[in-house]
């Protein structure tokens, strides 16, 4: 955790503060100090749309839950259906394709 121990004070018009708050909202940043510090040092803020990552995480949880259910069934009865395993493989491949597409888009940003 950073410890900030120096202050810089500045005077702004209300219209300037409103503009800063609007840009903070567009960037998805709630902390004005962090926003102003980032802008002063780097001159820009990068806002990433991570909705695909959120969907990927949701699907990973779903797939993991299914895998746990298959493992429990196999441990209890020793039986697992081939169709269930094929379904899990298809879902797993879909997740990998999705992850690769996200990584390619993120790499294009850099």
Provide structural commentary:
The protein has 2 domains: about 1-45; about 50-110, no CATH class. The protein starts with 13 loop residues before the first helix and ends with a helix. The model has no long low-confidence stretch (mean pLDDT about 85). With about 110 residues, the protein is mostly helical. It contains 4 helices and no strands. It is elongated and about 70 Å long. About 75% of the residues lie in helices and about 0% in strands.
Task: Let me know the average pLDDT.
Answer: 84
Helix content: over 70%
Global morphology: elongated
Biggest sheet record: none
Q: Report the sheet-strand fraction.
A: under 5%
- The run of helices and strands is HHHH
Number of domains: 2
Computed CA radius of gyration, to the nearest angstrom: 23 Å
- How many H/I helices? 4
Q: Unreliable runs, pLDDT <50, ≥5 residues?
A: none
- Structural class, judged by helices and strands? mainly alpha
Brief overview:
The protein has 110 residues and is mainly alpha-helical. It is built from 4 helices and no strands. The model has no long low-confidence stretch (mean pLDDT 84).
Q: What is this structure's SSE topology?
A:
Layout: H1 14-27, H2 32-42, H3 51-77, H4 82-109
Helix pairs in contact: 3-4
Keywords:
4 helices; elongated; mainly alpha; 110 residues
